[in-house]
Specification:
Layout (H helix, E strand, L loop, with lengths): L21 E3 L5 E3 H6 L12 E2 L22
Antiparallel strand pairs: 1-2, 1-3
Amino acid sequence: MLEMRPDCEMCGIGLPAEAPGAFICSFECTFCAECAEDLDDACPNCGGELMDRPTRAKALHAKHPPSTQRRHKG
């Protein structure tokens, strides 16, 4: 199950698990669409390809909660 990190690692914008617009690599490094585009869809941490992160239905958050640990290095 994906961790569903709550923010963009570059700019810190919120990325709710139930909303589209997040991009992840195979290590789940997470970026917003604008930052992913600026990075040319390449993860700056591992060099992996950034892909659309699937969404998680809000109704499933109680049973399978998304992460609350923010990763923005600001």
